[in-house]
């Protein structure tokens, strides 16, 4: 089965303080963050179609990865990840979509773990229940174990989202609608939360706490990611 994958790479990455797009940040093994993601996608799936949402210094990313599709978020400087994901989902072909933030460095075994959920076309978010960072997107679950709340302000959170997610073919149109409902400054997780709240979507929180997955926002995150390579 062909898998559609989207990498959200439109942001300016100001917190890391590099003069280039954050996905092009070099890692200790000589690859960039995005190259590590691309390698994981290609090795994880037999048939993968990759699209990248670009904005800030888009030409640098497009020159580095000429063999994939691109979606342009022209308002990258004033919108958040929900608008980038919205554009990508609107341009996707029928079927579910796997997507990730363009600053996540992660164990390639993640895709081995979630492949059965993708094969079943089940919406999910990857989570880490070992940590609950104050600045991270956190979650709670309902009585059946599906995602209930998903935001940076969740109280009594069970863990944090790691930025690797999948929307099923059945849920995709609903998520598009709920992303439209988001404010420009919202993270895409708000669209998922609205989909759960208003449409009773069932989203699995899939725990990968034994595998590394680091969102690189600051220099300390980059150092931590490099220790796992």
Topology of this protein?
Elements: E1 3-9, H1 33-44, E2 48-54, H2 58-64, E3 69-72, H3 81-90, E4 97-101, E5 104-106, H4 109-119, E6 124-128, E7 138-141, E8 147-151, E9 159-167, H5 169-181, H6 189-199, E10 204-207, E11 213-215, H7 219-226
Parallel strand pairs: 1-2, 1-4, 2-3, 6-10
Antiparallel strand pairs: 4-9, 5-11, 6-9, 7-8, 7-9
Helix pairs in contact: 3-5, 5-6
List keywords for this structure.
229 residues; alpha/beta; 9-stranded mixed sheet; two-stranded antiparallel ribbon; globular
Question: Can you walk me through this structure?
Answer:
The longest helix is centred in the last third of the chain and has 13 residues, at 169-181. Helix content is 31%, strand content 24%. The mean pLDDT is 96. The protein is an alpha/beta fold and 229 residues long.
């Amino acid at each position: 089965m062909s898998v559609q994958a989207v990498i959200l790479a439109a942001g300016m990455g100001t917190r890391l303080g590099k003069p280039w797009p954050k996905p092009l940040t070099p890692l200790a093994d000589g690859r960039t963050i995005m190259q590590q993601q691309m390698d994981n996608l290609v090795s994880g799936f037999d048939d993968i179609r990759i699209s990248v949402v670009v904005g800030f210094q888009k030409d640098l990313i497009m020159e580095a990865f000429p063999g994939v599709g691109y979606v342009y978020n022209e308002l990258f400087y004033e919108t958040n990840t929900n608008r980038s994901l919205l554009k990508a989902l609107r341009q996707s072909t029928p079927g579910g979509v796997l997507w990730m933030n363009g600053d996540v460095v992660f164990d390639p075994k993640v895709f081995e773990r979630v492949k059965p959920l993708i094969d079943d076309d089940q919406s999910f978010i990857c989570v880490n229940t070992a940590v609950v960072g104050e600045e991270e997107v956190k979650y709670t679950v309902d009585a059946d174990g599906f995602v209930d709340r998903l935001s940076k302000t969740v109280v009594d959170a069970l863990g944090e989202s790691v930025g690797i997610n999948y929307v099923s073919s059945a849920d995709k149109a609903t998520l598009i609608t709920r992303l439209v409902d988001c404010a420009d400054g919202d993270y895409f997780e708000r669209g998922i939360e609205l989909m759960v709240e208003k449409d009773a979507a069932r989203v699995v929180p899939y725990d990968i706490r034994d595998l590394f997955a680091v969102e690189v926002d600051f220099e300390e995150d980059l150092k931590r990611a490099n220790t796992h390579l």
